[in-house]
Every structure is written in structure tokens, then in C-alpha cells.
Specification:
mainly alpha; 79% helix; MetI-like fold
Length: 225
């Protein structure tokens, strides 16, 4: 029986690969757009404008403090009642973008706040504009603290993308649920699903470790002699 199930799983492999591609599309699109928006929000979040900082903070806290599943349901099922109807794929990408932007916003803001105030004061005293301060002084230093958690967050976002299967997006998790109805061996089917997620996530895990290691070397150079 196990041999029969295994053969059925092998026949289903092309569908799993299509599902994996959909996972990459949803999570990749959300991560790319979320990174751009998250950096912009993070810069404003770290600004001296208390009103803007507070408004962004409220939205970020709401998104970070509510289940991603609820957010997807609101976008896919509630917005159509307000006249904004979206197909499953655009709804999933918008939800992923919003989630990514909020988490990345906090990472960027924390990195900017970690830059010593003396650096910005010196840049301001040198006559640099706010944009020039960010570009030449603040962000280059902040990126050392932003990159490791940022790459780690990408891994979490890819895994969170499995939730989009509940609205009908045929990602690798959805393919797993459909396959297990024909191949009733859950360990085998979802073992394959887990392996496919690992294949996508491991390069980012490896990259995060490399970045952390390189930053440790820069911060603590080896002693000579």
C-alpha cells in the first residue's frame, strides 16, 4: 500500500511544483513590495513627526497584533461588501505585502534608532539635508543592524504565505490538502510539502547566518600578532 501511495505522490509531483511556484509568486511579490513600503514607513516611523509616527504605529500594531488569517478574510470576503472585489491571487499578494510592510517597518525603525544621535547631529551640523543624512550617514550604519533580522523575517513571511490557501490560492499547501484526499497518507504528503518549503527557505536561512557572521567579523576584527 505504501508503494502505491508513493507512486501516486510521484505522479502528483508536477502539481506540487506548480504549487511551489505559486508560493514563490505570492511570497516573493509580497516581500518585494512589502520591503519597499516597509522601508518608507520605517523611515517615517523613526522621524521626529510624532503625529505621523503615531499613526503608522497604530496601523503596525493592529496588523502585528491580529492573525494573518483574519486579515486575509477581511480583504477577500469583507471588502467585496464595500464594493472592492478582488480575485484570490491579488488579495493574497495585497495581504502579504501589508503584513511584510508592517514587520519590516519596525525592523527599519529600530535600526535607525540604533544609530548614535551624535552621528545625525554631526551630519546636521555639516549642513546636510535630511535626505542626505539618511542616504550618507544614517542608513549605511543602520543597514548593519537591519539586514540580519530582515532576512530572517523573509523566511517567516514565506512560511506564513501558506495561509493564503484558505481563500483558494493553489499554493504548495493547497496542493497538499488536495493530494491528501487522494493519497490518504498525511505524513508522506505533508512531509513533501515541508521539504519544498525548506528548499525555498534554506538559502535565506544560510544567507542570514552569513550576514550575521560577516557583521561579527567587522565588529570584532581579529587581533594581529
Amino acid at each position: 500500500m505504501w508503494g502505491f501511495y508513493f507512486n501516486e505522490l510521484v505522479r502528483s509531483l508536477p502539481f506540487f511544483l506548480k504549487g511551489l511556484w505559486m508560493t514563490v509568486v505570492v511570497s516573493g511579490s509580497g516581500i518585494l513590495a512589502g520591503t519597499l513600503i516597509g522601508f518608507i514607513l520605517g523611515i517615517f516611523r523613526a522621524s521626529r513627526n510624532k503625529l505621523l509616527c503615531g499613526l503608522i504605529g497604530v496601523w503596525v500594531d493592529v496588523i502585528r497584533g491580529t492573525p494573518f488569517l483574519v486579515q486575509i478574510f477581511i480583504i477577500f470576503f469583507i471588502l467585496p461588501e464595500l464594493g472592492i472585489a478582488l480575485d484570490a491571487l491579488p488579495a493574497a499578494i495585497i495581504a502579504m505585502t501589508n503584513l511584510a510592510a508592517c514587520f519590516i517597518c519596525e525592523i527599519v525603525a529600530a535600526g535607525i534608532h540604533a544609530v548614535p544621535k551624535g552621528q545625525t547631529e554631526a551630519a546636521e551640523a555639516s549642513g546636510l539635508s535630511v535626505f542626505q543624512q539618511l542616504r550618507h550617514v544614517v542608513l549605511p550604519q543602520a543597514m548593519k543592524m537591519i539586514l540580519p533580522p530582515l532576512v530572517g523575517m523573509y523566511v517567516l513571511l514565506i512560511k506564513d504565505s501558506s495561509v493564503v490557501s484558505v481563500i483558494g490560492v493553489v499554493d504548495v499547501t493547497r496542493v497538499g490538502w488536495l493530494t491528501v484526499q487522494r493519497v490518504p497518507e498525511g505524513v508522506m504528503v505533508f512531509g513533501l510539502v515541508g521539504i519544498l518549503y525548506f528548499v525555498v527557505c534554506y538559502p535565506l536561512i544560510w544567507l542570514s547566518k552569513r550576514i550575521e557572521k560577516n557583521l561579527e567579523v567587522v565588529a570584532n576584527p581579529p587581533l594581529l600578532g
